[in-house]
Design brief:
The protein is of the alpha/beta class. It has a single domain, classed as Rossmann fold. Helix content is about 40%, strand content about 15%. The chain is built from nine helices and eight strands. It has helices spanning about 10-20, 45-60, 80-90, 110-115, 135-140, 150-165, 185-195, 205-215, 250-265; strands spanning about 70-75, 100-105, 120, 125, 170-175, 215-220, 225-230, 235-240. The strands form two sheets. The chain has a six-stranded mixed beta sheet with strand order 1-2-5-8-7-6, sandwiched between helices. It has a two-stranded antiparallel sheet with strand order 3-4. A hairpin with a 3-residue loop joins strand 3 (about 120) and strand 4 (about 125). Helix 2 crosses helix 3 (about 80-90), helix 3 packs parallel to helix 6 (about 150-165) and helix 6 runs parallel beside helix 7. The longest helix is centred in the first third of the chain and has 17 residues, at about 45-60. The chain is globular. This is AB hydrolase-1 domain-containing protein. Pfam families: Abhydrolase_6. One of its GO terms (biological process) is monocarboxylic acid biosynthetic process.
Length: about 270
Amino acid sequence: MGPGGTVASGYRVLNYRALSAGDPNKIHVLTFDYRGFGKSTGSPSETGLILDAVAVVDWAMNVAGIPPSRILIFAQSMGTAVSIAVSKHLAVQEPPVVFAGTVLIAPFVDIATLVATYRVAGTIPILSPLARFPLVFKYLQRFIRDMWLSKDTIAQYIRTNELNGEDYRLTIIHAEDDYDILPWHHFELLFWHAVNASTPAGISYDDLEQKKLDSKTELGAAGSVMEWKTDNGVIQEEILKTGLHDVIMGYPVVTRAVMRMFEAVDPSFTS
């Protein structure tokens, strides 16, 4: 969930249906309120939210008895930072735990960059004018308590899986008209950090952009899809023309992303 409500707020219940729509008899959604929201007590913090999310995943595996290959980590907006951290946390432990996949909707690279680019309703800047003055903005960053360095965390997650030879799947989805997470370099930078970490020699941002031009699948009004494959993993970028920040959660693209990952692990999943 995001920081603006609870697990039962408005559109969220409908969104859960999109997650399980591919096969409601086999796909079940486990969600929870952040600390200090809804039924959860306490005060939210970066460390606390990660601990809570790890505890939820631990319950799913060790109490509900669901194997990692049948667990998909899914998140939107603020939740993407939490899910990336959890996926990395479990991938680096011994023995490593890698799930069926991770799906991120409307992610951001880190809080400092988000603050520097955020505009209310896509038009009213908050701190972005100050980003033009590096010394001033650097000083203000000292007051950011939780950094949520998703770009670094996602690189660690990918690099760890590659080194361990673990199969992994990551899908990042964003809508061009999302005025909450702007500008575009949030989405594109996160994808690049993931791809860059998947190869020993790395790849420059510009080279990846050129490869996108050569190999991405154009879907017209539906947007485009870029898939990056290694011997171990699949990193996919899906860009929709429309979907805003929250409406996209109920789109079929979400259902397809979920089903694609479960079917990759077990081709008989839908049979």
